Amino acid sequence: MRELVADYDYSLPAELIASRPLAQRDASRMLVLHRGSGQIEHRSFRNLPDYLQPGDIVVLNNSRVIKARLLSHDLRIELLLIESLDVRKWNCLVKPGRKMRPGFEFLIADTTAYVREILEDGSRIVEFDSEPDLERFGSIPIPPYLHRDADAEDEIRYQTVFAEAAGSVAAPTAGLHFTPELLFRIPHTQLTLHVGIGTFLPVKVERVADHRMHSEHYSIGEDAARAMNAAARILAVGTTATRVLESQPPGPIMSRSASTNIFIHPPFTFRRVGALLTNFHLPKSTLLMLVCAFAGREEVLAAYAEAILERYRFFSYGDCMLVV
Fold first, then answer.
1. Which of 141, 163, 265, 286 lies in the 20 to 30 Å Cα band around 104?
2. 202 lies in the same domain as 282
């Protein structure tokens, strides 16, 4: 089977890209796709509890987005911190790249930064004289397709209400729909996966199998492992929680901290996840490929076509899809 990235393309009217969140987190629409039959329902996210079965557990990613975007004091250089190597050293994406050679230094976040190394993918290892104050000088790295700078609303709404462990450079967006009130009504547990730069990067190869995912750090606590092992079915909230769960070795889920670069695409056999809540993803993205692996490429693309017809809101601040 010669699986092409182009097989995961679709045409989306620009006006359906949600540039801002709805006033209420749980007011999003929810397209429900039934695996196997391909049946589609149009519901509200507030109807999510209606689809839970006895013994289900909802698994959330509690990673918190850091203020990872920094501008130099002269406003000529932009850094996106993508991985902490220690408190003063980061792997970064840089703009502009042409002068960011090893040895280059500049003032940023009230400290001096030095380019130490250029990696194969074009990112830079940058070391700071002192730990950069991200809360004071950084901004939330909202998705590039929004074509605007982050503001005070994004600092609140581009975080889930259950975000705890700081470390992501993009939000686990399926979780943005939840409110404390809805969480109180459903059985749930949490794990952590710090969302990395792979969320931003387009797939540049022709064949799906040739793409390589960046590694991301995750952790599963003892209470979460116990809850998931006792569940009759796991409903994963988002592709990030799904990737953690499907990275686990055979046998009971154990408490652990590790990294994963798992790339889930058709054909893939899911061993842990029995239902999936996710947002609508960019064309030809690894996230869309994961959903297609779970529910079938033709079925998912048909659901996307229906969502476009019904004027659903797409991407990070948009509506959601439940696959059961």
1. 141
2. yes
